[in-house]
User: Fold Cytochrome c oxidase subunit 2 from Kroppenstedtia sanguinis.
Amino acid sequence: MKRRLPVWWLLMIPGLLAGCVSRNNMSALDPQGPVGKTQLNLVYLSTGIMTFVVIVVAVIFIYVVIRYRERPGDEKKGIPEQVSGSKKLEILWTAIPVLLLIILAVPTISTTFTLNRKPAPEESIRVNVTGYQYWWGFEYPDHKVSTANEVHIPAGKKVEFVMKSHDVVHAFWVPSLGGKQDLNPGRQDRIVLQADKPGVYEGKCAELCGSSHALMNFRVIAHKPADFQRWIASQKSPDSAPKTAEAREGKRLFRQNCIGCHAVRKGGFNVEGRSAPELTAFSNRTRIAGILPNNKKNLKDWLRNPQGFKPGNRMPAFDHLSEKQLDALSIYLENLK
Ligand code: CUA
Assistant:
């Protein structure tokens, strides 16, 4: 019995393909900077060559299957003539793949070297990136500023990301800007990226690094150059003074419970030896731990049960704090500007 594919199955296709639509500037197929564009051109070139090979092979295959299939009366003709070896064909099907590989290799290798060229352009700004299980530390050595999980850059300018890992291998990937670049323990690597326009570009860890690898997200926030300078200035003189009694209690709780791992800077920067994301100007972060929208409710949920949101991260649960204490702590953090 012949079974037909039900029509409703076809109706599922748009739903399945919806996953391919670019959301939050997170598609390598919709590049927003020169590196992403260069890399996409390579993708097009290799996909084009592969498609060409598939089509040629399929056409020859179908032709041969039809042309040389057994037909009635063939038995009487006996076994067809047996051929062995053909110099012409051997040369042809060696030369064509070699040629295709050269067409693929030349631009790939030259692009790889161009993207890795040292030193970085004179006018580029430098950001040191450190990968931790499962968060990102960012430092601006020229500005003496540091932050975590959200990296701010000026649009239209080259940014040199110099990276290392604190623990295992991670990979820095901002699909719409470019990448990926591995972060290796004991080694320094770099990638120079640029966002053409101001905007928020989602980044991901692209190397399996543990149970919360899939949640090791970060954001690249590109500003107009003047806004970027303003951001740098605000980070240089953050406002960490609690304004209300509740916030003061929050600060006391922070000192008691959090300061061993998290830093809140008053100015200057010091990231060495830090084992958890810096929380300076925390209220300006768009997300908590790179995954939850930054608001008081989510912050309290996170403090109560960080493992529930990001399994395997190193933050203990603060469920020994009372509801009132959690309120105070989150009010203090949500007022850090
Ligand atoms: Cu870090 Cu995957």
